[in-house]
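quick one: zinc ion bound model?
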Amino acid sequence: MRVCIQRGTREIGGTCVEVESAGARILLDLGLPLDAEDLTSAPLPPISGLTEPDPSLVAIILSHGHRDHWGLLPKARVDIPIVMGRAGERIMRAAADFVPGGFAPTVSHHLENGKLLTLGPFSITPYLVDHSGFDAYALVVEAGGRRVFYSGDLRAHGRKSKLFERMIANPPSHIDVMLMEGSSLGRLPDDAEFETEDQLEGAFVERFKATVGMALVACSAQNIDRVVTVYRAAKRTGRTLIVDAYAAEVLKATAYDSIPKPVQGWPNIAVFIPQSQRVSLKLKGIAPIVDSYRGFRVWPEQLAEQASRSVMLFRGWMLKDIERAGALVGARVFWSQWDGYLHDGAGKMLKEVCLARGIPFESIHTSGHASPGDLKRLAVAVAPKRLIPIHTFERHRFPDLFDNVTLVDDGQWIEV
Ligand SMILES: [Zn+2]
Ligand SMILES: [Zn+2]
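yep, here:
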């Protein structure tokens, strides 16, 4: 078996790993680089079978539904079999109607925790992991008696931290090559830990208590762990979590009983449809989806009266709806995403608007990726013959932190 990180040895984003054995190949992820201007100008990695027919390309496996892992997929041939988790597929499908450049893949096989999947000469064992993206997997790929472990994106401090501890207690064995993400290196001191989602819940509770009007939380609707954190904090402070149609559809798409959603039986959750979303749903011919929120709707004329008892999952463009409804009085904005998104685009604009308008703006967030300490625990538990950094801007730090590190370049083939 041979492995080639086509992209990702020196960056977070654009992740793509090509694995070859006995004349057959699979790809692990086909991500959009973070610095890509747009899909058109971002080139596909030089992999046979992505645009020209080549039956030796057996499948593309997506570890999870973050764009830095699937974003180039719309440029590839539609007849390449796609493999990913069931809930991940449903969420991508639900989100495709709402997010610019959204994409609903046609998935031919599904990843299931611990369930062996055979694709050509490859035996693949998925491990469900804790990550800010829902339904994310690490993968053991076995072929010709050799074993590769790809961490995908993972962490140990989210709502599914048990999965990480279980992996440490019972790690995949006899791993020849481990491709391990290192997103947190350079972003967190080696001996520091990220706040847990539980700790974040406590922080939100405190801040919601101190908020006179509406608490506006700017987080990704697809960060399901975070939505659950915000929902629980809302409930603990006697507030109702208000979501828009996008978040409502994503929450429903998880199809997990434990995830709050605007369906019968869930208290403290409501749906508000902003004006431009109402128009867009009509244009896309999917306006009838709002019928399913009957009994959960909050109307513009109710927002002001309910503001002090509400938390809204919101994006900057919704401010005008809230203002029009007279519901901005006493509001606070809580930024609950990576701070890097505040440096430009919509994040920067939101922060500036809040500053200009005197709306208090603060950050309450924790990373979707494992701390250096947790990565160390993982590397020690798996004890691979060779450890290769991926999904990191700080690969040169790997040899200080982990054993048996091999540094490779994008496009370099490694005999496993
Ligand atoms: Zn991710
Ligand atoms: Zn990623």
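The mean pLDDT is 97.
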